[in-house]
Fold this sequence. Notes:
Number of helices: 11
Number of strands: 11
Oligomer: single chain
Helix content: 40-55%
Structural class: alpha/beta
Amino acid sequence: xxxxxxxxxxxxxxxxxxxxxxxxxxxxxxxxxxxxxxxxxxxxxxxxxxxxxxxxxxxxxxxxxxxxxxxxxxxxxxxxxxxxxxxxxxxxxxxxxxxxxxxxxxxxxxxxxxxxxxxxxxxxxxxxxxxxxxxxxxxxxxxxxxxxxxxxxxxxxxxxxxxxxxxxxxxxxxxxxxxxxxxxxxxxxxxxxxxxxxxxxxxxxxxxxxxxxxxxxxxxxxxxxxxxxxxxxxxxxxxxxxxxxxxxxxxxxxxxxxxxxxxxxxxxxxxxxxxxxxxxxxxxxxxxxxxxxxxxxxxxxxxxxxxxxxxxxxxxxxxxxxxxxxxxxxx
Length: 331
């Protein structure tokens, strides 16, 4: 082969090699546009009927209608929510297996040993779906009508007060612990499997206080069966706007937000993460979604994937620090 033929052959070879590279961005865009080509699994590591279960059903019903594919909500419970979470962490990163979790995805690993996933390394955040305001309630027979009175009662009888928690290491548990530390009081957690069981014990007066989801507490508050003192989040709850936050009530660094969010396996391509994010945001910003979520005691909240990842990393570190400060033993 002479020099001219060799040069021509080399140009043709390089052109052929560059073609797939040139098509790379287009192929990725096409993949995102074609998704979903089949049904999508939405893993929820909670029993059916909880807020973390109902919120994705409402949101993904809208997404399913628009995309013409079924988003199958699958309740994968066990291991303090770790069974369902680990299943998604190990799933193919192809956009067809999604995790919907509360921030227990961060708090449970802070106090539970041998958790089979890392919330930062194993998941990519897609977006939050909403905040779930928690309201601090006490039974009427305690004759407590303010946060200050609750704290004073706890300090007057050190070590005798208790509080309800739905599980160990969950948002309701760590919300109470953050408040307890900020207020400088002693109180023992009484763990329950769910909010209904916890609420029953609070109503009887056998449990002194409970940071319960607004949707579960509001009817009992309105009927005078529970006394609401404050909300735990960084802002007031839309459903109970007259109640102060615990910070507004005079206890700095007592706030703790309870949110529900969407995750995918870490290696999921960013174009698919962006497509899923856009479809979810479209659903949440729909004309009737705020009303539907409000009925579940949830305030809509969306974040970009990058912002959500940053929040997850920040709050995972906060959960570890809180567990250490509260002397919560790793189990």
